[in-house]
Write a structure and sequence with these properties.
Elements (H helix, E strand, L loop, with lengths): L1 H19 L10 E7 L2 E2 L7 E4 L4 E5 L4 E9 L2 E4 L3 E2 L6 H15 L1 E6 L5 E5 L5 E5 L3
Antiparallel strand pairs: 1-2, 1-3, 1-10, 3-4, 4-5, 5-6, 5-7, 8-9, 9-10
Length: 136
Amino acid sequence: MKKLATLLMLGASLGLAGCASDALKLEPNRTYVVEWIGGRPLIDNSYLTITLDEDGRAFGTAGCNHWFAAYTLKDQQISFGQAGSTRMMCAPALMEQEQAFLEALGKVQRWDVSATNQLQLWPAEGKPLRMWPEDN
């Protein structure tokens, strides 16, 4: 009985290891939903996204306004040009969060995937933008 339990546990762990090989990647034409800006989680019920197209254009929603910027991606390096956005006004807290997001985006230099399989965009100093792929 102990051998059967050991074999079942080994099989389950091998199955989980197979899942780990399906690593998250930074992919063009995929939308990522931002969860953290540096060390701060998003305001409840706010929604920020990043989509990278194949032509070097990035865009999404910044919580209040739509944003857009050029980007370059090479291996683990990524950088964004000066971001532009629409100019709607929202609640002051949302506007502050949006500004922090756009400023953080302009400082991004590289990307990686965390131990929890979360995509991270890192500035030269400080904490990353953290996000998940949007469910399609």
